[in-house]
Amino acid sequence: MSTYAIGDIQGCYAELLALLDKINFDTEKDHLWFTGDLANRGPHSLEVLRFIKQLGNQAITVLGNHDLHLLAVAFDQSRHKRPKDTLDSVLEAPDREDLLNWLRNLPLLHHDNDFGITLIHAGLPPQWDLKQASELAREVEHVLKGKDYSALIKHMYGDTPDKWSDDIAGWERLRFIINCFARLRFCDDQGRLALKENGPPGSQPEPYHPWFSLPSRKTKNEKIIFGHWSTVHIGNVSNFSEFNVYPLDTGCVWGYTLTALRLEDKKWFKVPSTQEKIHE
Question: What is the pTM of this model?
Fold first, then answer.
């Protein structure tokens, strides 16, 4: 029995099947972790969502920004739909509501005590330790699962506030939490987010740094798997293990590779993308 963490799929269903074939995925014994961003930009979002949903307890998935965006578009297409979205197959599917309700019930953070590893989509600000991060994730998840989830969707978009305080309340509090878990790449030593920066490490202006490289980060001794950042591997970071992180988004939807990490021995597996190679 093995457990594999898999990076952002974004509708690349053929590559997912190829990767599962490469790792000899055993549907009776093995388990899969997904870093989120199951849907959008790629060609087969519906097939990916259906496949992972039917895995049931064999799969653990955290929500990514594109998954949350899908929920927003489903709620109000006229307000949230973007020209590059490839979500129509999901929005028009007969099992649309089942898929959307399944997404609404996925977590933002998963921690496994046996492996001593935490799974998120994007990042964590330096002020949060793992206990606080887990509690804050539950705050958002509670609202997302509840009857007021549509109000959360309405207030989800935006880049402010850009710095954490325990005094932040209401929709601003939930928005900040979502922005960290679903969008964060860079922040400064004080934990101020730079959400508009999306290049590789080293491309950011001062005083910002990759979230995982800050010495003040309270989770620096925690092992963390994340996705979201397809250009992180071409930046000026030579050894992610020194930061206790495993970045798994290797740009499949941009024509590069889809990656899995076997948690038992930290062995990497990759398959090439069939998408046209472009830059994010």
Answer: 0.97
